[in-house]
Amino acid sequence: MRIALFGDIHANLEALEAVLTDAAEQGCSDHVCMGDIVGYNADPSACLERVRESDWPVVKGNHDEDASGDHSLDNMNPVAALALRWTRDQLTSEQRDWLRTIRMVRQVEDFTVVHATLDQPQSWNYVTNKFDAMSNFSYQFTNLCFHGHTHVPRIFVRDSRVTEVEASSIVIEPGMKYFINTGSVGQPRDGDWRACYVIYDIPTKTVTFRRLEYDLATTQEKIRAAGLPEVLAERLAEGR
Ligand code: ZN
Questions:
Q1: Given the DSSP bridges, would you call strands 30-33 and 2-6 parallel, antiparallel or unpaired?
Q2: Average pLDDT, the chain
Q3: Percentage of the chain exceeding pLDDT 70
């Protein structure tokens, strides 16, 4: 069994389609979504429907929560808030109800999935180094946990201590714990503009990162046509 794990789609339909095509070519039979289906980019409805109709296991991201509610967005980054207000207007009340029902944490096969961290999923903490990862491990009861939220692919491993491992592929060893950020499909922030996701091959216990070019020009055109801030189109090309 090969599972495609992807998140932080952020309403980027071209990137999502590229990931799904590649996952099919790579022989993935199952899919798991790490959340943040909407926000920032111009295809929230189409991306939401793609995830919903497929009935994949999905966990809630902070943008899914913000797009589904009516609460004030005034203390957010102004560009993200503007895109979220626009997103709220694009979605039907029924689509927003569906976003609201998404669970915060799920267990799938032999691993756990969360958008941010397991210690306080609703606090949306950012894990940018091994010190941030430590509190998550205290609440991680499976060998392997996948997450997203920072839009940067990373591997944290806990043996007798916590380390960050730089690799494009890793074999999951028994007795160790792994907290793996699958990167972002629709708005990577590690300086590489290509869509990012991972494949978990269960028979060999191997997790492999995939990077894919997609039709960036079309995504940028849609952002401009929607009247969303130009910076959202530009940052996609820079991968930040
Ligand atoms: Zn995100």
A1: parallel
A2: 97
A3: 100
Q: Which residues surround ligand 1, an ion (CB under 5 A)?
A: 8, 36
CA 155 to CA 235: how far, in whole Å? 24
Q: Quote the number of domains for the chain.
A: 1
Residue 17: name the closest of 212, 227, 237, 204 by CA.
Answer: 212
Residue 128 CA to ligand 1 centre (angstroms): 14
8 Å CB contact between 122 and 103: no
In terms of residue numbers, what domain contains 66? 2-238
Q: How far is the CA of 60 from the centre of ligand 1 (A)?
A: 10
| CATH code: domain of residue 185 | 3.60.21.10
Q: Name the burial class of residue 87, with classes exposed (0-12), middle (13-18) and buried (19+) by CB atoms within 10 angstroms of its CB.
A: buried
How far is the centre of ligand 1, averaged over its atoms, from the C-alpha of 175 (Å)?
31
Tokens 């389609």 locate to 17
DSSP 131: H
Beta bridge partner(s), residue 45: none
9 CA → ligand 1 middle, Å: 7
Burial (0-12, 13-18, 19+ Cβ within 10 Å), 191: exposed
Band (pLDDT 50/70/90 cuts) for residue 166 is: very high
pLDDT digits (tens, 9 = 90+) for 5-22: 999 999 999 999 999 999
Return d(Cα 195, Cα 21) in angstroms, integer: 12
CA of 169 to the centre of ligand 1 (A): 23
